[in-house]
Design goal:
alpha+beta; two-stranded antiparallel sheet; TATA-Binding Protein
């Protein structure tokens, strides 16, 4: 896949969402089995889904003014990075840091 390829990221895996949120200093609070509030400082937003295994979406009118820039955008980037690393490892690749920030080198031996 060329380095300029764009792929839409869908937030589906709750475990990875929680890992990414924690790494970014966010808290994840469970409201129901399919509704969670993410908070970082004074910014917050509620993510919901219809049922487990489906994509999360931001609940209408459930966030502060800066939730998109301060929560959703960094969370989506961190989530996508973790999914790429997990996928590569599942296919037998070793993932290491690249020469540029946010870059990875995938190596397969054998």
């Amino acid at each position: 896949m060329p380095c300029y390829t764009r792929v839409q990221t869908l937030l589906i895996d709750l475990k990875i969402i929680e890992q990414a949120a924690s790494a970014l200093g966010m808290t994840v609070t469970k409201r129901t089995a399919n509704s969670y509030t993410l908070r970082k400082g004074n910014e917050y937003v509620t993510l919901e889904r219809t049922k487990e295994g489906e994509k999360f979406y931001t609940s209408t009118y459930s966030g502060s003014d800066g939730f998109l820039e301060n929560i959703i955008q960094p969370l989506t980037l961190a989530y996508a990075k973790e999914r790429v690393k997990q996928f590569a490892k599942s296919k037998g690749y070793t993932v290491s840091a690249g020469s540029k920030p946010n870059a990875y080198v995938l190596t397969k031996y054998g």
